[in-house]
């Protein structure tokens, strides 16, 4: 998802919630250590090699953080 001025905040929030949900579903599916069988390189914050479980967890946390930020920004904007 690339930032642009084309999407309305409600659309962005819905997309982020959807992506977060997809990540959480995938995390449930790769229980029992299956996610550790696949490793990939993560260039964000120089994380280096991480397994699939760690990557999906990172994505889920990242999406949740952006939803938090959007909620805080909206509250601040509405308070003014």
The poorly predicted ranges are none
Number of domains: 1
State the total count of DSSP E strands: 2
Amino-to-carboxy terminus distance: 29 Å
Order of helices and strands: HEEH
Q: In which range does the helix fraction lie?
A: 55-70%
Largest sheet: 2 strands, antiparallel
* Form type: elongated
Structural class: mainly alpha
Compute the CA-based radius of gyration: 15 Å
The number of distinct helices, counting runs of at least 4 residues, comes to 2
What percent of residues are in strands? 5-15%
Numbering strands along the chain, what is their spatial order in the largest sheet? Answer: 1-2
The overall pLDDT, averaged over residues, is 78
Quick summary:
The protein is mainly alpha-helical and 80 residues long.
């Amino acid at each position: 998802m690339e930032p642009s001025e084309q999407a309305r905040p409600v659309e962005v929030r819905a997309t982020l919630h959807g992506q977060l949900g997809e990540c959480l579903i995938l995390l449930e599916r790769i229980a029992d250590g299956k996610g550790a069988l696949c490793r990939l390189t993560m260039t964000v914050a120089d994380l280096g090699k991480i397994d699939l479980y760690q990557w999906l967890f990172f994505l889920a946390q990242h999406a949740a953080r952006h939803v938090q930020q959007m909620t805080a920004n909206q509250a601040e904007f509405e308070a003014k």
